[in-house]
Amino acid sequence: MSNDVTDDATVEETAEVKLTDLALxxxxxxxxxxxxxxxxxxxxxxxxxxxIKGFVEEQRSDLTVIVPGGGEVGRYRVNKTSxxxxxxxxxxxxxxxxxxxxxxxxxxxxxxxxxxxxxxAVLGPDGKIYNSGTGEEIPGIKFVPGGTPTGTVTWxxxxxxxxxxxxxxxLAAYQSGALNELLxxxxxxxxxxxxxxxxx
Length: 200
Fold this sequence. Notes:
- This protein has 200 residues and is α+β, with helices and mostly antiparallel strands.
- It contains seven helices and nine strands.
- The strands form four sheets. The chain has a three-stranded antiparallel beta sheet with strand order 1-2-9.
- Strand 4 (103-104) and strand 5 (108-109) form a beta hairpin.
- The protein is elongated, with a radius of gyration of 27 Å.
């Protein structure tokens, strides 16, 4: 879901804002953006390695994030590689490509040919690899099973009828102070530590 603002009423309201106020808001937004880059973003990235390690050790594929009180925010899913075929023996596969007239003048196989052959490849019951279209054996390639972590994770907000209700649940918990105890380990994320927050 895009975060771009296109609401006509918002555009008209922005046009009526005094230039000095607009400039002040712009500078404040810039300060918040820099704060996010320097302080907040590293906290987001810091979770990646432990998440992947935990997924592997516990043999789980996802993790639901819940705030105190039981509200579901969303889930992390570990991204895994897909099964695929790759060229294993360059020289052997080059000879195969040449026999099909798929070698370029620079004496290398055409990338389109390699892509097409790998896409058509299937693993036979005898352990050999065949072209699913022609039935012929394909030399010089091997099967690489998928399922291993790619080193990245994907975050998805819990949604309801197109609304990011997971974000609403999270922000409500944040604003109510329900997360304060948790955030004591990362005080820079506490509301009072945000740029411009009052020091009551």
